[in-house]
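Appendix B.2, paired examples.
Example (i):
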Amino acid sequence: MIGSRWREHWEELRRYPSALVGMAIIAALVGLSLYTVIAIPYSQALEKWRGGEPWQLHPVNAGPLWADRLVGGRQPSTLVIDSDTAAVEEASFAGGRRLRMELAFDYQYDGFPSEINLFLRAEGHEKRPFARLLWQAPDGREFMLGGHRIGRDHRISISQDRALERRLGGLVPHIGLLAKPDSDGDAPPQVQPGRYTLMLDAVVFDEQAGIDAKLVLYGRVHGIAGTDHQRRELSLALMWGTPVALAFGLLAAVGTTITTLIIAAVGVWYRAGWMPPSSASPR
């Protein structure tokens, strides 16, 4: 009996495709809300959204990855080259050691990165190490990026090196370092695809402590929703916005229903109270 009644309701509902689509959308939103609350608790989501170190490897104001790929684009996503996978040569001398590190990567995108940063970490050093940087392009060109005293946590913003920008003919480093050599004049610069290498030649004054390096080429697209001006993933805001929006919608629906019932009840009550008695029918 119950099964036949449900089948009748289902057959009736199938006559309205828009209702089925609406139910599917609501079910998907409810499922996403449950997944968000379980997988990303509110305290963890709030800590992430406040920014800081969790987002330092994300680009600024990046668009969604799927939107670029949907139109056949090849804008770059973020590349991270870590010293853990790099080739390192070590030579000792009186009073210290010399470390030569190759941070190499293949670049095959149509667009330039949005910026380039180098993160260095030197822990356990009594005396700060010194490092020189050399950029090698696929065509054999080399660009000196200067020398730096390295602290415990050191960040080198290659994109903001104004002296390097002047040596690159006025092109900002994250464009000039990856541009074809004939990219000058009025024509826009073109990407030179191939294998690039950042050579890090460091001198350390400690027998055991080393240097950790991480080269980051920030992309133009990121994730399913992109990022904002503080490098935060907008997908986090969209995911947590879903249960919040559903909760407000449910409260609004319940509140509207209850308010309507109260107004209707009051109206019926007062209507019944003010209704004049019916007069006797004439004989």
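Example (ii):
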Amino acid sequence: MDLDVFVSAHRPEWDRLEELLRRRPRSGAEADELVSLYQRTATHLSQIRSSAPDPVLTARLTGLVARARSAVTSPRRSSWRDVGHFLAAGFPAAVYRTLHWWAPTAVLSLCLAAVIGWWIGVTPEVQAAIGAPEELREMTRPGGRYETYYSSDPAASFAARVWTNNAQAAAVCLIFGAFLGIPVLWVLLLNMANLGVGIGLMAAAGRLDVFLGLVLPHGLLELTAVFVAAGTGLRLGWTVVDPGPRTRRDALAQEGRSALGMAIGLALVLLVSGAIEGFVTPSGLPTWARVTVGVAAELVFLAYVVGLGRRAVRAGETGDVEATDRPAAVPTAA
């Protein structure tokens, strides 16, 4: 091989490849050209190494091929545009798609909490099993533990602690839903039992209005997020039983990726409810004002999910990651 002739013949291709590597963004034609030049330059490097190993030229082409390989094969980097798309379409679409799962879950769970609360409120024997009369009076009296709980710590640290606990409960529902939804049912039962106990004890003390005035400001949004997580977890569990026309592996992969994205979105929702619980619930605002804040936050979330979510689903959004970020699917016979 005449190295000088070889370099003269192919240097324009190498220079063009370097130019394309510096260019951002690239058009579709430029991306195709980059792939082609990368393959040809890799061939040139192989030829030089085997026929005329020049150290300087080999080093240059080795670096050029490595940069081109990274540009061609590396995964797409996330950007603020992806964040915007997730918040405007991906997350609300995922929540809207599971509406027929989490809405009934919410209704049945709240009915269960109400039944537990009624049972405790009208049954002194159950109240006695929960705690001694002195303990129950300390919990339900004016200024008792039910009221001081929300101001037991500084607002910021209390909000952070509540957010962490609720986010963990939502994550359990989303992550472990694949175990046929059994962990999800356990999380729901614990939450509704705690809510029912509070309703029953405060109702028996004639202070149910105070309890609801403390719970509703943050509880509406907080419980909705938990119900969304639970409904999604139950859907994931049902996917194991009935994957539909997809293979069970593909169905679980798609629904699992969607659930992971929902975990991030619900963490943001729970951050808002945690802030309300830390700063609004224990504030000196009148009860009607605190409840109004909670109702407003809940209505905004529902409007966000139904409005943006329905529109995104109609546009083909599923809440899954971008097609370019998914593993390649192997064609299967119908």
